Automatic annotation (TrEMBL):
Gene Ontology process terms (BP): translation
Gene name for this UniProt entry: ylqF
Higher taxonomy: Bacteria, Bacillati, Bacillota, Clostridia, Eubacteriales
PROSITE patterns referenced in this protein's UniProt entry, alphabetically: G_CP
GO terms for MF: GTP binding; GTPase activity
InterPro entries named among the record's database cross-references: G_CP_dom, GTP-bd, GTP-bd_ortho_bundle_sf, GTP-bd_ribosome_bgen, GTPase_MTG1, P-loop_NTPase
SUPFAM superfamilies assigned to the protein according to its UniProt record, in alphabetical order: P-loop containing nucleoside triphosphate hydrolases
Binding site for GTP: N62, K63, F64, D65, N134, V135, G136, K137, S138, S139, G181
Family: Belongs to the TRAFAC class YlqF/YawG GTPase family. MTG1 subfamily.
Organism of this sequence: Hominenteromicrobium mulieris
Name of this protein: Ribosome biogenesis GTPase A
CP-type G domain segment(s): 17-185
Keywords: Cytoplasm, GTP-binding, Nucleotide-binding
Length: 295
C-alpha cells in the first residue's frame, strides 16, 4: 500500500465554530448531524458527542445516492442497534427528506406534549445542523427553505463556505440553525483525514494530490476491483497486484494524458481520478463498510 498521507487541518475559525456550537445549543431543541454516507466513520466528528451532551440528535446520511446501497442498509442497521435515529438522504434531489419532520417530531414527542400542556401549541421546532466541511449542509438548507425571508445558503463544492451561524425558517413549523463546517483539532487515525480528503472535505491545496490518488486507487482495488476497470478500461487482473502509482499510470495512458516524450501526465490523471470519484462517476461506492477497520 502507498504511504498514508498526514492530513492535519484546523484553521482558527474551527475553534471558534466549536465554541459557537456550544453556546448555541441552548437555543435549539435537537441536533441534526449530517454525515457522508460514503465514509460514515470518518465524516463523524468524534468530539461532537461531548459538545452536544444529552441534547436529542438525529443522523442524516447524505449523498446516499453515491454510496453502495447494500452498505448503507448495513449502516442503517448499525445505527438502529445503537438506538440512534438515522435517515439516508440526498440533499441535492431531496430524496429521503420527507422523513425528516416525522422522525424529529417522534424524537421530541414528549417535549412537544409538554409545550402543548403549557399552551405553546404550534411552537416551532428549532434544529441545529452540524457536520464537517463540504458534507452538504448548505444544500440541505436550500432544499428545505420555502421562500419568504429565509433566503438561500451559499453552496459551493469547496470546504469552508459557511463561516457564521445562520437561522432559516424552513416552513412546516421548523427553524433551522446552520453552523460552519467543523473539523477537529487532530485526526487520531491518519486514515480518517485521508478519507475526508478523498471526498473533498479538506482543501486540495494542502494535499499531495498524486499520493492521495494512489491511496484511493488501492482502496478501490480492495473494495470495488471492477470500478476502475469499468470506468477507465484498464483491464487490471487481480493477480497483477498493482500499486497505486502503477494503476494511475495505466489510467493516464488509457486516457491519453501524455506530455512531451510520451511521458504520462500523472498529476493531471490524479486530479481526474479524484474528480470522477467525487462526482460519482466510478459508481456507488462506500469506502467504510460496517465493522471493517480503516486502512
Amino acid at each position: 500500500m502507498s504511504e498514508v498521507q498526514s492530513v492535519q487541518w484546523f484553521p482558527g475559525h474551527m475553534a471558534k465554530t466549536r465554541r459557537a456550537i456550544q453556546s448555541s445549543l441552548k437555543l435549539v431543541d435537537i441536533v441534526a448531524e449530517l454525515i457522508d454516507a460514503r465514509i460514515p466513520v470518518s465524516s463523524r466528528n468524534p468530539v461532537l458527542k461531548s459538545i452536544i451532551g444529552n441534547k436529542p440528535k438525529i443522523v442524516l446520511l447524505n449523498k446516499f445516492d453515491m454510496a453502495d446501497p447494500a452498505r448503507t442498509a448495513e449502516w442503517m442497521d448499525y445505527f438502529k442497534q445503537h438506538k440512534t435515529v438515522a435517515i439516508p438522504i440526498d440533499c441535492k434531489t431531496g430524496k429521503g427528506l420527507n422523513r425528516l419532520l416525522p422522525e424529529i417530531k417522534n424524537i421530541l414527542r414528549e417535549q412537544i406534549a409538554a409545550w402543548e400542556r403549557k399552551g405553546m401549541v404550534g411552537r416551532p421546532i428549532r434544529i441545529m445542523v452540524v457536520g464537517v466541511p463540504n458534507v452538504g449542509k448548505s444544500s440541505l438548507i436550500n432544499r428545505l427553505c420555502k421562500g419568504g425571508n429565509a433566503g438561500k445558503a451559499a453552496v459551493q463544492d469547496k470546504p469552508g463556505v459557511t463561516r457564521r451561524n445562520q437561522w432559516f425558517a424552513i416552513g412546516k413549523g421548523l427553524e433551522l440553525l446552520d453552523t460552519p463546517g467543523v473539523l477537529w483539532p487532530k485526526f487520531e487515525d491518519p486514515v480518517v483525514g485521508e478519507h475526508l480528503a478523498f471526498t473533498g472535505a479538506v482543501r486540495d491545496e494542502i494535499l499531495d494530490i498524486e499520493g492521495l490518488s494512489y491511496r484511493l486507487l488501492e482502496l478501490l482495488q480492495d473494495l470495488y476491483p471492477e470500478a476502475v476497470n469499468t470506468r477507465y478500461k484498464t483491464d487490471i487482473r487481480p493477480e497483477e497486484e498493482l500499486k497505486g502509482h502503477e494503476i494511475l499510470e495505466r489510467i493516464g495512458r488509457k486516457r491519453g494524458m501524455l506530455i512531451s516524450g510520451g511521458e504520462i501526465d500523472t498529476e493531471r490523471a490524479a486530479v481526474n481520478v479524484l474528480d470522477e470519484y467525487r462526482g460519482g462517476k466510478l459508481g456507488r461506492i462506500t469506502l467504510e463498510p460496517v465493522g471493517r477497520p480503516l486502512k
